[in-house]
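Problem 12. The chain below contains 580 residues. Write out its predicted structure in token notation.
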Amino acid sequence: MSFSLPPINDNPDGGWGPSSSNFPGQFKFKDIPYAPYSKSDKLGRFADWNETTSDTRQNAVGMVSTQNTRTGPGGRRREGAQAFGSGTASAFAYFHVEDESSFSLVDNKNAPPRRGGTFIRGRGTARGGVGNYNARGGAQRGGRGGFGGRGGNAQRGRRGWRDWDKGGRARESSVVISPQWSMLEEIEFHRLAKLRLEVDEPENIDSYGRLFAYDKTFDRITTKTEKPLQQLDRIKYNTTTSDDPVIQQLVNKNTATIYTTDVILSVLMCAPRSVYPWDIVIVREGNSLYFDKRDGGPFDTVTVNENAADPPQDPSPPNPNNPNEKVPDTPSINSATSLSLEATYVNQNFAFQSVVETSPPPAVDFSNPNPFYGPDETEPLASCGYRYRVFDLSVQEDENFKICVRTEVDAYLPGSGNPREGQGLVTIRALNEFDPRAAGAGGAPDWRTKLDSQRGAVVATEMKNNSCKLAKWAVQSILAGADLMKIGYVSRSNPRDAARHVILSTASMRPTDFAAQLNVSLNNGWGIVRTVADLCMKMPEGKYVLVKDPNKPLIRLYAIPASTFSGEDEDGEGFEDDEA
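Solution.
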């Protein structure tokens, strides 16, 4: 057999490789330079934030790093050896016009050490996990336990092996979004936080109801002289805006452009703090807007630890594909829904109990009787006064854009002036402790041991875990023109019994000072209200609903049919008087 040599293409130019003249128009790699490469280079890395390598300058101009290049056990290269092609400038690298090697990384501190996904014990603080909280003493300041004792608690300060799954459960919306609804606007919370509108002092239109005096003996309660929380049968109305007969009269007089209540308005003004879902029904009739609530919706209950890093959770719904799954007959007393109902019960009864219903001091009647108490009612009314106030939200001098708000006060302080003239008015609220060791407690300290000696730790933890709820209370008190807020600390008699409670202490503060401590901006709240009102005034007459997304920090405005949420359409979920 003969052996034939392959054709040899000589390059007459004296260079390497075949000449282009030998393959005219057919050499597909023409004008592409040869670039050696290293097979061990990782092509998946597109950014390297490590500024401590010695060849940063090479990386900036497209050269491959020469560190860690000697091959060791397992196919890895040891330090010091250079792989083939690693020291050659890449012809395909991107070159910036300016020298990027002069840039440096600002945040170059080392990551905190972690051991197996758990907190590392040390001086009672938690490091390297979700939420920097002191293990036993409440919120943490500057990396140290500012409010607490020593040592971690395995149930409160340490992450378990399944803690990665906590909080990941998607919440359901407060209202079912129908396919017939059309979304008109979507606003993120960071945009709402930038709004500002200065509003002058309001105008008092009229007042209704009867107020009892606040019992000052509640200010002297301590953990050693605790008082049982009583269950009292009193009537207190939380009627929505459209069903308020006083507001209907004010609409006929063309008093304002927007009509609402302080409960609804405070939710909108504090919207950027909210985590749980809510919805506000907005009705436009002519040039008037009504902000309403749904009966039985989120406005009729009080949240618990809404802003905690690990808020209380409701049990997962049963799996329809697993018929053998056991569902508990009664929900846990520490679930989100059970705690919300318990907190509502505690708030109402603490407000009923902390007033003096027998003279002296005498009860104070406002200019008009309670507008919701019918002649057929036999149960006694709770101490409550309604003040209808008008705030001017006009931006321009020739503009007439006002909002009429029905505000509530719970009592008056004897010896602080005439309550009929808005002096010495008090709003009463209550914080409740359920079980500091239970899931969702938010690292709260034990009130019975810390409330008298370390009140600051308790207050700081509540401000962190209930930021939205406390902000709404402060806004409601300011809208009502109250001089004082009374907040009771109510705990369970036994952590496993949600029916019996004791009053451990009562705090007193001015609403404006309390709002400043919470970093609540009324100007920001008024800006949110005016922005939402302007959006609705641009729409035609009809019914709309403003919905807080259950899992994202944003709100959406929907246009809905006029029959939505009516009594006939929703099996009684209409705008009827709500008695508490």
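Discussion. Residues 182-310+336-374+383-560 form one domain. Students who got a different answer should revisit the alignment rule from Section 12.3.
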